[in-house]
Amino acid sequence: MSDDSAAPTVGDVSDWWSTGISRVEPDLIELRGRPIQDLIGSVSFVGVIWLLLRGQLPTPGQERLLEAALVSSVDHGPHAPSIAVARIAATCGIGLNNAIATGVNTLGDVHGGAGEQCLHMLGEVASRAEAGEPIEKAASSVVEQWRTHSRYLPGYGHRFHTVDPRREPLLGRVQEAVGDGVVAGVYLRAAKAVEEMLANGRTRPIPINVDGCTAVVYGELGFAPPLARGLFVLSRSVGILAHAWEETGQGRRNKGPMPPSIQPTYLADT
């Protein structure tokens, strides 16, 4: 069989892996055009996350907001599926890297995806408000739309917390950033409009939770919704690592989801 196409060149291979994120050559490492030796010791880890994702260093105000959001999501105890399965995996002899991967791989639409979903929702409210629709009406219309395909509203309510203890410090920092001119505040206004709408006629309100609060932060900082989940994964990986490491020191082998003395209910009729 004849092939009239030209043989690939070295340039073709180089272009196949073209990237604007990093440049690595003998004796040279650059991240977004900045030598790594200039970043080490002068730029924080959060600043480097921003640099790699956005192409430039954040302002101090942007960095503080991003750091607050990342800190808020690091851990939520071993009842969180991502933490629980990482601890189980850590007792199976697979190593920390695999235990962390096991935990991270549970972060899907249901566990770990609410921030991304909430950012989509708040973005719809914000867009309608910026187009001139009263924000209360925009919030009501968007929530009604979301509820046609899900009984859960992403970013609101919590199965443990009446008021999520991370709400005030996160939204408070966003409000400060609005006052300082760091962010515009449109996502904050959208989130509060949804929260107020949900509270109407209820004796027990449905406050915004950490997923909603971080969605506000990421939206105000200009991150695309899929990155809300990606940033949550980075944050939660810290807690997953800590729990997996702790579990390796407790001496258990093949840890199951329940102590051996407790047996699961057997459903004889199924």
Low-confidence stretches are none
For the record, the CATH architecture of the largest domain stands as Orthogonal Bundle
Oligomer: single chain
Series of H and E elements: HEEEHHHHHHHHHHH
Features:
globular; Cytochrome p450-Terp, domain 2; single chain; mainly alpha; 270 residues
Structure description:
This protein is mainly alpha-helical. It has two domains: 20-58, no CATH class; 59-256, Cytochrome p450-Terp, domain 2 (Orthogonal Bundle). 53% of the residues lie in helices and 4% in strands. It has twelve helices and three strands; from the N terminus they run αβββααααααααααα. The protein has a three-stranded antiparallel β-sheet with strand order 1-2-3. The chain is globular and about 65 Å long. The model has no long low-confidence stretch (mean pLDDT 92). InterPro entries: Citrate_synth-like_lrg_a-sub, Citrate_synth-like_sm_a-sub, Citrate_synthase, Citrate_synthase_sf. This is citrate synthase (unknown stereospecificity).
What is this structure, in a nutshell?
The chain is mostly helical. The chain has helices spanning 10-16, 36-39, 45-54, 60-72, 81-90, 96-104, 114-130, 135-146, 167-179, 186-199, 210-220, 225-248, and strands at residues 22-25, 28-31, 34-35. It folds into two domains: 20-58, no CATH class; 59-256, Cytochrome P450-Terp, domain 2 (Cytochrome p450-Terp, domain 2, Orthogonal Bundle).
Q: Which SSEs are present, and which pair or pack?
A:
Blueprint: H1 10-16, E1 22-25, E2 28-31, E3 34-35, H2 36-39, H3 45-54, H4 60-72, H5 81-90, H6 96-104, H7 114-130, H8 135-146, H9 167-179, H10 186-199, H11 210-220, H12 225-248
Antiparallel strand pairs: 1-2, 2-3
Helix pairs in contact: 4-9, 4-11, 5-6, 5-12, 6-12, 7-8, 7-10, 7-11, 7-12, 8-10, 9-11, 10-11
Family: Belongs to the citrate synthase family.
InterPro entries: Citrate_synth-like_lrg_a-sub, Citrate_synth-like_sm_a-sub, Citrate_synthase, Citrate_synthase_sf
GO biological process, one term: carbohydrate metabolic process
